[in-house]
Amino acid sequence: MASNDKPAAPGADSFDVIVIGGGPAGYPAAIRAAQNQLRVACIDEWKNKDGSATFGGTCLNAGCIPSKALLESTELYHRAREEFSIHGIGVGTLSLDLAQMQKRKAGIVKGMTTGILALFKSAGVTALQGHGKLLPGRRVQFTAHDGTRRELSARHVVLASGSTPIELRSAPFKAPHIVDSWGALEIDAVPKRLGVIGAGVIGLELGSVWRRLGSEVTVLEALPDFLPMADQQLAKEAQRHFRKQGLDVRLGARVTGANVTGGAVEVVYTDAKGEQRLTVDRLVVAVGRRPYTQDLLEAGTGVELDERGFIKVDHSCRTGVENVWAVGDCVRGPMLAHKGKDEGVMVSDLIAGRYGEVNYKVIPAVIYTAPEIAWVGQTEEQVKASGRDYKTGVFPFLASGRARAMEQAAGFAKIVAARDDDEILGVHIIGPLAGELIAEAVLAMEYSASSEDLQRTIHAHPTLAEAVHEAALNADKRAIDSINR
Ligand code: FAD
Ligand code: NAD
User: Fold this and answer.
1) What separation in Å is there between the alpha carbon of 283 and the centre of ligand 2?
2) What confidence tens digit (pLDDT) does each residue in 194-245 have?
3) pLDDT digits (tens, 9 = 90+) for 102-115
4) Residue from 78, 156, 241, 461 carrying the catalytic annotation
5) The CATH number of domain 14-165+290-358, selected from 1.10.3720.10, 3.40.50.920, 3.50.50.60, 3.40.50.10190
6) 344: Cβ–Cβ under 8 A, 6 or more apart, which residues?
7) Is the CB of 7 under 6 A from ligand 2?
8) Does 195 contact ligand 1 (Cβ within 6 A)?
9) Is 315 a known active-site residue?
10) Gap between the Cα atoms of 51 and 39, Å rounded
């Protein structure tokens, strides 16, 4: 515990730590604070479409978890339709019960969100469902969902209010026809034609879900390049696969209008050839998210927002106000659940006087499409631009016995390492379970491993992980199971 901090006096309304927001940034902050023997409350106002209140924020209720549930179900459906016969399996007439698929998804979400309450109970976190507002002097106004209001005080306040979808003026949300990502997860009949604005992570994941179920999916992306933030060798491979799957991704497409007429959506956009029109049955707008701080800060708290609305914080997530911290999507950095979780845990360790740090250089990114896409560290383009001499090693899953056995031999693993000291600078994987495989690269980079360290690590055979091993070997043109180029 920091030397000038005294534990909160026992009392219903005074805490050592109050966390506002119970998403993947806020709830881990609360649990770690409790593990550090601090008296902690976590306030969350999330309400589901049926009016129920749950912890877990966007990620558990309307993001990571329901999207992965549908990605899994639809991938199974797709494989049953396209691949089972290759294995010699016949399933007769394949049928789709979308209501059951959605029910399974809802069950997973319910299990995960109620699980947080169990975690809070076991750790000793006070769970408060309703709205939290920071007042000057580290006091917090709590308004329960039934409207009752009380004032709480804390030695430390952690703001973890998350983010919300960006709405386009040219295509405002109009459910059920023009929806955000949450709406796109709830569609109850497979649309014949689905439009998606934005070929980012959500556009590709949710576009894949509905494409696999039979929708004609058109994705309109304003930028001229596909996945510009990814390694371009990987982005090109991904684009090729998505095209093959029938995802019609149109680049350089700027939407100027979208109108609901006669049960369909007429989308107008401009591209290099001029004005274009597209008619779809449902339109998903997935053009990014913005920090959410509505009614979070009473005037006079001293907490500042930057020009894009993010709460200003330093490297350790301190706002400019003593003992007020902010973590997750409401602060700078990638909007990822695991980034928020690490920040929340770091802050609660720092509050308790323990060591805490987030290594922002080694945050993995995963896109849960098929093939799956994952990377960590710098792209080849970034390393080239930095001027550092480098080498690359690539291993195609086509040469992986396990991937072949799984009938999932698309894609590759790629490693970018420094030529001078062999340090691994980036790892980029497109292929089966890439999101799982990247964990090894994250650990290696966390410990500043060299590509030789990976080369000298035994990988079980036959596993997908051998692809990362062989990519490292290929960086020195010493791969055994593929041709060294
Ligand atoms: P949130 O999860 O948004 O939680 C904030 C919580 O605070 C909410 O419950 C909100 O109601 C509450 N709140 C806000 N203000 C107040 C207030 N004043 N008082 C009380 N409560 C308040 N990320 C990944 O890493 N992997 C994925 O696979 C992934 N998939 C995604 C899929 C979709 C469709 C979407 C939309 C997002 C996905 N994300 C994914 C991003 C991930 O959901 C976010 O990065 C993550 O939820 C951010 O966590 P957070 O705790 O900062 O904010
Ligand atoms: P994103 O930033 O990933 O992609 C948005 C895309 O929309 C970009 O390619 C952008 O160029 C494009 N765009 C912006 N304005 C446009 C316009 N007017 N017309 C056409 N295209 C336009 O954002 P997202 O896909 O909405 O996801 C939001 C956040 O949620 C992201 O930060 C992401 O990290 C997170 N998320 C993560 C995962 C994951 O980790 N697997 C999954 C889903 C969401």
Assistant:
1) 15
2) 999 999 999 999 999 999 999 999 999 999 999 999 999 999 999 999 999 9
3) 999 999 999 999 99
4) 461
5) 3.50.50.60
6) 19, 24, 25, 26, 27, 28, 29, 30, 32, 158, 160, 327, 328
7) no
8) no
9) no
10) 29
